[in-house]
Amino acid sequence: MLKKRIIPCLDIKEGRTVKGTNFVNLRDAGDPVELAERYDHEGADELVFLDISATLENRNTLTELVKRVAKTVRIPFTVGGGISDENFVYELLQHGADKVCINSAALRNPDLINRIADRFGSQCLVVAIDARQSGNTWFVHTHGGTRPTDTVLFAWAKESQERGAGEILFTSMDHDGTKKGFALQALHALNQQLEIPVIASGGAGNTAHFVELFEQTGVSAALAASIFHYREIEIQDLKNILDSHKVPVRKL
C-alpha cells in the first residue's frame, strides 16, 4: 500500500514564511530555508513552497530561494507562484525543484497544463485549486484566493487531470487556518472522482484531524502550515499516531 504523505507548506511573501487565516491576516513564521532544513530532518515526506503574492504582483517565484532550498534538503519539494510559461518551469526544475505548482495561470490558460505535462511529464506538475463553498457548490478562486470565479471545483479538477496534471492540491478557503478540521466531504468526493493523487489542504488543527482525513477520504497526502511552523504538532509524533491507526506512513 502506498504511504500517506505529510507535507509542510511554506507560504512565501517577500522572502519570508507567512501564515494567516482564510487567506488573510498574515503573520511571520520564519526563514523558509531554515524551516525547510528542519522539516527535512524531522521526517517530512515533501515540502511545498508557494509564493503567495507572485501572481498578484506580476513577478516570478524567487529562483534564488529554489537554489538555496535545493542545496539544503534531500526530500522532494514543489514550488509555485506566478508560473505562467514552460520556460520558467524549466528554470525552476533546473535549479532543483522536483515539481511545480500552477494555479491562476492554469485557469486563465488551461492549455498551459498540457504544455507543461507534454514537455516535462505529469509527474512534476501539481495543479493547485483554491475553492470556497457557496450553498452546495464549491467555486474556484484565483490570485491568492482574492478573485472568485464561476468555475466549479470538481469540473476543474477533472479537466486538469485530463489535460495532464499529476496531482491536485485542493485548499478549502473556508477551512484554511481555522484548525477545525479538513473539508472531508469535498475531499472524499474529489478523491473518488479522480485517478490522480489528491493533496488535502486547509483546516488541520490536531492529530485527530489527520487521522479522520486519511480514514474517511482516501486522499494521498495532507498539507499543513502553522501547526508545523509553530511546533503545535511534531511530524514524527503525528506519524506515530497515524501508524497506530493503521494509516501507512514513512517513518524515520
Mean of all residue-level pLDDT scores = 90
Contiguous low-pLDDT stretches (5 residues minimum) are 20-27
CATH architecture: Alpha-Beta Barrel
Strand tally: 12
The top level CATH class name: Alpha Beta
Please give the order of strands in the largest beta sheet: 1-4-5-6-7-10-11-12
Helix content: 25-40%
| Ends distance | 18 Å
Helices and strands, in order, run as: EEEHEHEHEHHEEEHEHEHEHH
CATH-level-4 superfamily name: Aldolase class I
CATH fold-level label: TIM Barrel
| Largest sheet report | 8 strands, parallel, barrel
Shape: globular
Strand content range: 25-35%
Number of domains: 1
Radius of gyration over all CA atoms, rounded: 16 Å
Q: Return the structural class.
A: alpha/beta
Number of helices: 10
Quick recap:
This protein is of the alpha/beta class. 36% of the residues lie in helices and 28% in strands.
What do you see in this structure?
- The chain has 252 residues and is of the alpha/beta class.
- The chain has a single domain (5-244), classed as Aldolase class I (TIM Barrel, Alpha-Beta Barrel), CATH 3.20.20.
- Helices cover 36% and strands 28% of the residues.
- It has 10 helices and 12 strands.
- Strands 1-4-5-6-7-10-11-12 form an 8-stranded parallel β-barrel, surrounded by 6 helices.
- Residues 20-27 have low confidence and may be disordered.
How is the secondary structure organized here?
Layout: E1 5-13, E2 16-21, E3 24-30, H1 32-42, E4 47-51, H2 63-72, E5 77-80, H3 86-94, E6 99-102, H4 104-108, H5 111-120, E7 125-134, E8 137-142, E9 147-152, H6 153-163, E10 167-172, H7 184-193, E11 198-201, H8 207-217, E12 221-224, H9 226-229, H10 235-244
Parallel strand pairs: 1-4, 1-12, 4-5, 5-6, 6-7, 7-10, 10-11, 11-12
Antiparallel strand pairs: 1-2, 2-3, 7-8, 8-9
